[in-house]
Design brief:
about 120 residues, mainly beta, 11 strands, globular
Length: about 120
């Protein structure tokens, strides 16, 4: 199991930007994929983006494609999410997660989760 801690959330005006970070520790040897999810009040947890830990192949949900960028620093065991052009509908708790599988981007495929960081976008 991997321990994950998100940071970088906050309050931002519509059209603004935020950069989220996720620090990983513990047993990371079996991790092959890390991703970002979010959950708004009354909504299910939503997939946003994923990156392969070996290599840097990425995949994005349509809702954030072109606005969000996922990246990583393997030496620092850190995952990032650069969020540009934020909208009020982006308001949610953002979570990073780790997976030992290569396929699918469902929340159930990720076995390690952070506590989340709040992102609030005002109009």
């Amino acid at each position: 199991q991997v321990q994950l801690v998100e940071s970088g959330g906050g309050l931002v005006q519509a059209g603004g930007s935020l950069r989220l970070s996720c620090a990983a520790s513990g047993r990371t040897f079996s991790t092959v994929r890390m991703g970002w999810f979010r959950q708004a009040p009354g909504k299910e947890r939503e997939f946003l983006a994923v990156i392969m830990w070996i290599g840097s192949s990425t995949y994005y949900a349509d809702s954030v494609k072109g606005r969000f960028t996922i990246s990583k620093d393997n030496a620092k065991n850190t995952l990032y999410l650069q969020m540009n052009g934020l909208k009020p509908v982006d308001t949610a708790v953002y979570y990073c997660a780790a997976s030992t599988t290569w396929t699918l981007n469902k929340a159930s495929d990720f076995t390690s989760w952070g506590q989340g960081t709040q992102v609030t976008v005002s109009s």
